Amino acid sequence: MKSFKDIKAIVTAALLAAFTCVATMVIQIPTPALGYIHPGDCLVLLCGIILGPGLGALSAGVGSMLADLLSGYVIYAIPTLIIKGVTAAIAGIVFRKLKRKFSHSYAVFTLAGILAELNMVFGYFINKIVKTMFLAGLYNKETFSAGLAAAITDLLPNTIQGIVGIVLGLALFPILMKIPDVRLWTGEASNKENS
Question: Cβ contacts of residue 110 below 8 Å, gap of 6+?
Fold first, then answer.
């Protein structure tokens, strides 16, 4: 019954998108450069690791984008969709590739999380520079310098957010791994175990 399994994956993706949105909105600590730190990155990583790079990226990107839209950070919505989607995709790809070679899931999760969160920090760094230049309507050395200064200001908060996401993800991961479908989707279980 492949279609039933597909429906379960789609419903799970929708739920994880909703959880990502809520986790991003529940605790928001403002940063100096008009962003905010939140625990939503934990769910972004879990979306990619549980659902894989395709569906997980869509789930993480949409959930994170909805949080920006509902929180009044509309200008971040599209960049967030892309950055968080790519972050989840990286987590999913790295986790699956390394899982084939190493059996220690927590170490694999940690490495996948670090590489994925580096993407998030770099993505928002570039986004801040481009956004500052775009809002100024000028594309010159001065607006680039202003954007660079704003981007540097956000480096530490975004890094902290990434670390919190990895730590919370590691705390939730063993709980979620008790669910047969999650074990199957992450490659921890055989198809027989879940049929």
Answer: 166, 170
30: left (phi over 0), alpha (psi -120 to 50) or beta: beta
For the stretch 27-50, pLDDT in tens is 888 877 666 788 899 999 999 999
Distance CA 44, CA 86 (A): 10
Tokens of 20: 């990502």
CA dihedral sign, ordered 45, 76, 158, 127: positive
**What burial class does residue 102 get, using C-beta atoms within 10 Å of its C-beta: 0-12 exposed, 13-18 middle, 19+ buried?**
exposed
What predicted TM-score, i.e. pTM, was given to this entire model? Answer: 0.88
CATH level 3 topology of 2-190: Arp2/3 complex 21 kDa subunit ARPC3 (1.10.1760)
